[in-house]
Design brief:
With 131 residues, the chain is an all-alpha fold. 65% of the residues lie in helices and 0% in strands. The protein is built from six helices and no strands.
């Protein structure tokens, strides 16, 4: 008898608690979705309008911009062979945009003491010349 009373109490529990719905009939998950929509709209309104950035703000440069190319050119003269090889691979990926690196790559392809660097330089030269 005691077990039956406990079982009935447990079965009646969701009816007493309300199964997650509020007095206005919306479930808790529906309320959370509405809150998330409001947060997103508030975040959008906080972003500055195009062309209204603070003084001194610079737009991010393209990943293949001049600064990346300059760093590869600088690393071609690095004393570490791995860094020179990475620079050759980076210039290989730049293709025709890296034409100004050809003289240095040709020097590395002929004179570098590390075989991996020489091979990477040759591959980069070929890729740059093919465009």
């Amino acid at each position: 008898m005691k077990r039956l009373a406990i079982l009935l109490a447990l079965l009646a529990m969701p009816a007493i608690v309300g199964c997650g719905s509020s007095s206005d009939g919306k479930t808790a998950s529906a309320k959370n979705k509405n809150k998330n929509k409001q947060k997103k709209s508030n975040e959008k309104s906080r972003l500055p309008k195009p062309g209204t950035h603070p003084k001194g703000y610079k737009e991010p440069q393209n990943v293949f911009g001049p600064t990346l190319l300059e760093s590869y050119l600088k690393n071609l003269k690095n004393p570490d062979a791995k860094e020179r090889e990475r620079a050759c691979v980076g210039l290989f990926n730049q293709r025709s945009r890296a034409r100004e690196a050809l003289p240095e790559l040709k020097r590395l392809a002929k004179n570098d003491k590390d075989k991996k660097v020489r091979d990477a330089a040759k591959r980069a030269i070929k890729a740059i010349e093919e465009g």
